[in-house]
User: Fold these one by one.
Assistant:
Number 1:
Amino acid sequence: MRRAVRRADLPAVAETRRVLRDNLREWGVSALVDTTELLATELLTNALQHTCGGAVLTATLSPEALRAGMAGQWLRIEVRDTVARLPRPRRREVDPAGDHGTSGRGLLLVEALADAWGVRPCPTGGKEVWFELRAHPN
């Protein structure tokens, strides 16, 4: 599954979530829908919020043969954008001033809920932020 979203087209984020949900159910991994939807939305909105261009979300379900030594299938979500600057997760420490803002925690969610995640520069410019979840059949 691959979806491109333009920065000015924020309603497309909801449509992308719907298509992602439908694909996960069709692939037989509906148990991953809630977590995948949350994390993919975080990465996609981060890309749209912090770049001037759009973003491309790609979802793939890899057979176990692609993950040597790891049984089962793996769901991989990649969000590619046009800015080369690599994101950093917000620090986990509590602000002594009591600032418990609601923004800036997307990568912490990804780090906490994904089985694996990372970021890499793209050879053609920009970057790709990805996460993986182990897929358990329904």
Number 2:
Amino acid sequence: MKKFLFIITLAFPLLANAQDFLVGPSVAYQSQAGNMLKVGGYYLQPLAGNAVGIKLEANANLAYFRDQFLVIPEGSFTFYPTFNNLIVPFVEGELTPYTATPKVGLSIASIVEFGFGYGFDIKTKQDLKPIDGFSFSLGFNIPLNAF
């Protein structure tokens, strides 16, 4: 019995696999023509042997503009050109029904992200100011399957 347990103990690392992707909730603050709280989820997939990565994200932007509480849906695509360091750059594109926002930024271990960009007005909602101009965001990605 001891030999059997010893063999299983030695073979276990050969059977264990690292996570091939990360998934979880995301929370962020964004300043773009006003203050917004972004709440949603993300899927991050490393590619080419963890050399580069992509992230898909779906969010709800919660804002209070001109005495109106708004929930604005948003989708984003993020490209990480490298995963070799703790702090990595990224390029991101965000799209809402009203704004397209390209961004660049830095990510710390793909958990904390600082982004800067400029939003272009696609369509202005009636009784709402345009959501465009310079954008700054601070986001947190909480991986549920990292360990």
Number 3:
Amino acid sequence: MVVETQIPTRQETIREYTSLNAEAKRLLDFKKKNVKKHNQTPCPECATLIQINANKCPHCSSDIGDHTAKIREELGKLKGITVELHELHNRYMECHEEESAAHSFWERAKGFISDPRMREDLKIVLPAFLLFFVLIAALRVMGNGPLFWSTTLAGGFIAYYLLKKSNFRRYVTIDLYRAALVLGLILVISGATTRPLPGWPDMSLNTVEVQRSVANIRESATTNSQVVTTANQGDKLKVLDRQGAWYKVQTKDGQTGWVYSSLVKD
């Protein structure tokens, strides 16, 4: 007769994980207090650092066998619990994927938002992300490159901290991490090119506006070079490079050339 073993549910896995995690924290505190570098522990009698495998202190000759045996026992428990926690995490993700597959997308979204703790996290995380992207977009409009990148890096760190501390990490899988990484790389690379993706802040050096009725855009940074195209007063030109009093610019229709600085204004 074959007896089928019942697979623990996600809630049972969470309870077991919480219990083991509390014990792991206790053991980590014990290790931090009693184990120093190179697997050494202070002698309870003279505080001399000795190996945790020692049975007698070489400094004061005290019998410390019971003390070091207790340390080794607790460290063994910590190692075993670490393995169990890893297995429980994998089991949780499997249960979560199986339960998710049994429900439609809208059912999963409803359950995601109906969680009271999730709603509390959303009240903090969503406004923070919105303000962050509004800020970096505003900085790019002002053309402040160094401030833009410093703000972007600082905002990314804050966003990571919020996600790490919030309940979102219960719902974030390795696939979502990979997707976010790929999306971030695409946005950064596209922003660094002369033709960024729609909606992404312009990463070019700056823009200038034509202040004369007509501005000649030439093939090279000399007054006797051939005219590539012309721009009218008020036209915005994207700055690609600068050489002395000349700007290398790009027009709205994608043509590039050099324009003299007196014909445009920042």
Number 4:
Amino acid sequence: MMTKTKFAGWMAAGLAYAVLAGAETYDRPYDQPYDQAGYGASTLDERVARLEKRLSGETLMEMANRIEKLQGEVLRLRGTVEELSHELDKAKRQQREMYGDLDQRLKAAATPPPMMTVPPVAAAPTDATGTPPVTDPGAATVPPPVAAPSAPAAAPPPPPPPAPVVDPAVRQAAYQKAFNTLKEGKYTEAIRDFKGYVANYPSGDNTDSAYYWLAEAYYVNRDFNSARDTFRKLIRDFPKSAKVPDAHLKLGFIEYENGQYGAARELLNSVVKSYPDSSAAKMAEKRLERMRQEKH
């Protein structure tokens, strides 16, 4: 009987100890946050630190790559800006040259060529006494021989109507108006006025000059195709005009502006060869030298 009682006591004590030990173990993570199994708060901090370090390294690398890419883009854009700036400076210089050249030519031609006048009819010759010679009255009264009658000829066609009489003063005023408009820098209006002049006076005294200034106005407006056609018409229709050397020069300039440097060189050399003592030849030599400096 005594043995059973002791055994039961020992059993109860063991059970109580097991319950108390389990409770102690269950409460340990809260009482002792740093355990020996590696699952404590210190290991979590280390893992967070390692994750932050890894993320930080990846972010820095990504940012470095992006910065390098942006730097390359900036360099490319800077090169583009410099190239565009160079092209803009070149265009401005060429435009100034166009205006300057036209201005010099306008000043040189500020006084248009004088109008042609009809020479007076020569008077009948007189002898030493001041009286006109007398013709033989007999010779004047001899009738012509009578031709044999023939069949009536067909009536000749009526003569063409007489050309309208052009008032030189009106023609000169029209030319001067267009010329003054060009001097004022109103190139579009000058084109209109010179086109009207050559249409109304296709063979007037100043028609060759009108074609030249019309082409110059096109040139300054950078309408190179119209300028080329007009300079060529001047050369073709007025080969003896004093404007022909300058027209050849400007054809070379037009090819230069269009980037056709081979054609420009050929035309400019032709001006130098064909008109060696002209101002056009001197300007052609200057442009050829400039092309050599520009490696064209």
